[in-house]
Amino acid sequence: MKNSSTLSLTLVAIFAAMTAIGAFIKVPLPIVPFTLQIIVVFLAGSLLGSKRGLQSQLIYLFVGLAGLPVFTQGGGLMYVLQPTFGYLIGFTAGAYVIGFIIERVQQPALKHFIVANLIGTVIIYAIGVPYLYLALNLWLGVPTNLSHVLAAGLFSTVGIDIALAIFTSLLAVRLYPALKQAIPQKEWWFENEEKRHLRN
């Protein structure tokens, strides 16, 4: 169990670092650049589970807000005013939900990973796009109508992200069995089983 916990913490740190690296592998686009971070988010949720997937993205978020330049345009507490900060919030929620879905399947298959990643994609955009609209129109003082926000913050990248969700699912379905044996993926299940035995 100790070795599993150590491996678990190590993987959380690795995925946080990979998210930071992914921020600098990007294609410059107007307002919202395309990065490879979303691949790490998909894998974090799929392989680490809801709790650890969330932790990996929170660590990345807190490190950036603390001042280290791990975001696409630097770091620091004032980064919350950046129009793309909502996508970073979406990463944390997306990783959690992806893990939450996978944890509830005893033996997840490719279709489960695809569905989970696609739902995670919806969550990321559901948080990121409204945040983008509010940031531009409220505190940044850049009047932008909804159609322009959707073009820059959704339509320009969502097709690629859907393709990456499917591609990442192909990786996850191969990696998941090994990690499931190495670390306790489904703590919620064991806790529920323990409570059930105690009642009996």
How would you describe this protein?
Helix content is 74%, strand content 2%. It has 200 residues and is mainly α. Residues 185-200 have low confidence and may be disordered.
Helix-strand layout with pairing:
Blueprint: H1 2-22, E1 26-27, E2 34-35, H2 37-65, H3 85-103, H4 110-139, H5 146-155, H6 158-182, H7 187-199
Antiparallel strand pairs: 1-2
Helix pairs in contact: 1-2, 2-3, 2-4, 2-6, 3-4, 4-5, 4-6
Number of strands: 2
What is the helix tally?
7
Kindly give the count of domains.
1
Helicity, in percent?
A: over 70%
Encode the helix/strand succession as letters.
HEEHHHHHH
Tell me the strand order in the biggest sheet: 1-2
Stretches where pLDDT is under 50 for at least 5 consecutive residues are 185-200
CATH architecture: Orthogonal Bundle
Name of the CATH class: Mainly Alpha
Main β-sheet, in a few words? Answer: 2 strands, antiparallel
Radius of gyration: 18 Å
Q: Give the oligomer, counting copies of the same chain as homo and different chains as hetero.
A: single chain
Key phrases:
two-stranded antiparallel ribbon; 2% strand; 74% helix; 200 residues; Arp2/3 complex 21 kDa subunit ARPC3; mainly alpha
In summary, what is this structure?
The chain is mainly α and 200 residues long. The chain contains 7 helices and 2 strands; from the N terminus they run H-E-E-H-H-H-H-H-H.
